[in-house]
Amino acid sequence: MLLDHAQGMVFRPPSEANSFILRITLGCSHNACTFCAMYRGIQFRTRPLEKIRCIVENAAQRSPDIRRVFLGDGYALMLPPENCCPS
Ligand code: SF4
């Protein structure tokens, strides 16, 4: 098992009530919106692809009925595709 201690709370948008929350980043890369304090105090970092793969494989074994995945945390889609997909 890879050691990768997650930080902070997991935020689930209401529209993602039934989704698996996959945190490919921790915190928010922007973290400057004046109305948002969700990730204040959390240093932004990306998760290693091997850790993401481990989480996905584990989730697939434990919950094979998962049909929707929400990528977190804040502004997770700033990552280039090569950081998220195995080549
Ligand atoms: S999570 Fe979204 S709203 Fe909050 S600081 Fe980051 S970009 Fe702004």
UniProtKB/TrEMBL annotation:
Domain Radical SAM core residues, every copy: 24-81
Signal peptide (residue range): none
InterPro entries for this protein: rSAM (IPR007197), rSAM_sf (IPR058240)
Origin: domain of life: Bacteria
Molecular functions per Gene Ontology: catalytic activity; iron-sulfur cluster binding
Name the record gives this protein: Radical SAM core domain-containing protein
Gene source species: Desulforamulus putei DSM 12395
